[in-house]
Amino acid sequence: MSSRRPDRTGLVAPAVAVLLIALLLGALVGTWPPFVAVESGSMAPGVERGDLVVVTATDRAPWGDLSTHADPEAPTRLGETGDVVVYTVPGAGGRPVFHRLAFPVEAGEDWTERADPSLLAGDCAELTTCPAPYDGYVTRGDANGLYDQSAGIAPVVPEEWIAGKALFAVPNLGWIRVGIDAAAARYGGVATGVVLVGSAGLAGGVGALLLGGLRRRGRR
């Protein structure tokens, strides 16, 4: 007499579904991971701390090339004109920066002549990033009082440092990613991954049991 084995597909289905959605989104936008969690208020009010932002590759169709706040026909992104990008300063050891492109600069240019004086902490002679050492961009968080290059957040940002640009934000969903990153930093990526998969499986199992119970009641 054979015993019927329990159906365990409900335990792993949620985790598999989340993974497939992430892979499909990554293929569509051309970046991995295809989203970033906002951890500061530097881009408020367009993007608040805890929001989850979907990003795309900088040259990905149909969203076109990079545009800055100073461009005459720049699209509106997250509350202001110009693209909001994710960039990382090599060798700095910090987390990626999620700020708006203010305007482009050329190597050797005194870019403070085209800058908003109220967003500068000094003239070109007082800034370590001026004149521009290479072609790139001046950047700024919408809620910040200074350009990144004047506040010491980053030097002029060349295009190769930019990992992606923002498409849209989902309010508060980023807290999940922030929590995962914090757990990974404290307990390690493998342990965190095991807990996440187990949690997804447990949630799927509970959901499958509830759904099965509802179906059985409906058949009575």
TrEMBL record:
GO biological process, one term: signal peptide processing
UniProt keyword terms in alphabetical order: Membrane, Transmembrane, Transmembrane helix
Segments crossing the lipid bilayer: 187-211
InterPro entries according to UniProt: LexA/Signal_pep-like_sf, Peptidase_S26, Peptidase_S26B
GO cellular component terms attached to this protein's record: membrane
Single GO MF annotation: serine-type endopeptidase activity
UniProt main location, coarse: membrane
Compartments, record wording: Membrane
PANTHER family per record: SIGNAL PEPTIDASE COMPLEX CATALYTIC SUBUNIT SEC11
Name of protein: Peptidase S26 domain-containing protein
Species in which this protein is naturally found: Halorubrum californiense DSM 19288
